Backbone:
């Protein structure tokens, strides 16, 4: 192998030391398919034990070890080794991305090595860890998708671009639903809750409670992540309420950062347990990419209806 001006003054020991310090896995394979060199990063990235990586180890040894531990997925290990040996013997440049069973994503790039006479003497292969990059790429796509959905909802809510056609049911749903979260809006909740309160006015023994949830420091979230980021937060919190609502069928968004649940025939102690479940569920929400550091919490209040109160009285006490 010829050298150029950049390497002519380096000793073999210096080159080997440099490759050992590289975060990228490196192997040099002879024409006989025996490994002539490998660095520590190669063993670390592929979890190869010291007893395997000994002088004289061959590619076939490595393929067998991988096949037997399920590295290549389901199938006949003997056939898996055979197929890989056939490809290797072609000594062709190659580049592919492989995801290991443990989730590690590797970019594998191999190039042929020629000796001073121009004859093929083996090949060198680089193994680069793409796990973090792929995870970030996935998070970016997820975050972008969520932001686009939130933007579409906001645009529809602001411009009234949802097609109403002539369907009375569609008109009704648009009138009573919050466009961003899909929950009921305050106007529907007030009317429905007042009706329930009036129906049960003759029997004060039946419990009726209101649960209020307010997103903490929502103004700061809007300032740091913009209105689209704020919309993502509201959508996610609303989704947790919808998922956890259980027997509570009156769940509404009653303000920019406030959600309310009206619970008829449910005791206050049950409501407090439910409120705590919601608080924990919201605390566990994780966001992607630029919002990954954000941790959202909600403040909760539970109030029980008093004799002679209206829904608005209840709402005011829960504020």
Residues:
């Amino acid at each position: 192998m010829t050298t150029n001006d950049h390497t002519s003054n380096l000793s073999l020991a210096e080159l080997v030391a440099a490759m050992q310090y590289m975060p990228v896995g490196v192997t040099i394979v002879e024409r006989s398919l025996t490994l002539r060199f490998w660095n520590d990063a190669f063993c670390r990235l592929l979890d190869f034990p010291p007893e395997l990586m000994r002088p004289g180890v061959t590619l076939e040894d490595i393929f067998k070890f991988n096949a037997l531990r399920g590295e290549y997925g389901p199938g006949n290990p003997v056939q898996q080794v055979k197929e890989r040996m056939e490809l290797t013997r072609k000594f062709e440049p190659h580049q592919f991305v492989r995801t290991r069973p443990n989730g590690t994503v590797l970019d594998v790039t191999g190039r042929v090595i020629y000796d001073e006479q121009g004859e093929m003497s083996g090949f060198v292969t680089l193994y680069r860890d793409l796990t973090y990059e792929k995870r970030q790429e996935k998070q970016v796509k997820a975050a972008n998708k969520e932001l686009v959905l939130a933007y579409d909802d906001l645009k529809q809510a602001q411009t009234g671009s949802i097609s109403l056609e002539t369907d009375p049911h569609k008109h009704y749903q648009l009138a009573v639903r919050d466009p961003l979260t899909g929950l009921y809006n305050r106007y529907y909740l007030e009317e429905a809750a007042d009706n329930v309160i009036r129906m049960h006015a003759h029997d004060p023994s039946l419990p009726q409670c209101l649960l209020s949830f307010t997103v903490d420091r929502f103004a700061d979230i809007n300032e740091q992540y913009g209105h689209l980021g704020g919309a993502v937060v509201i959508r996610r919190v609303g989704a947790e309420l919808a998922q956890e609502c259980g027997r509570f069928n009156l769940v509404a968004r009653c303000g920019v950062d406030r959600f309310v649940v009206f619970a008829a025939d449910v005791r206050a102690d049950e409501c407090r347990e439910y409120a705590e479940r919601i608080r924990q569920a919201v605390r566990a929400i994780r966001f992607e990419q630029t919002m990954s550091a954000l941790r959202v919490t909600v403040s909760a209040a539970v109030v029980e209806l008093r004799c002679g109160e209206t829904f608005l009285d209840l709402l005011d006490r829960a504020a």
About this structure: Strands lie at 25-30, 35-38, 94-99, 105-114, 120-129, 184-185, 208-215, 250-253, 258-264, 298-304. The radius of gyration is 32 Å. The chain has a mean pLDDT of 83. Residues 113 and 289 are 41 Å apart (CA to CA).
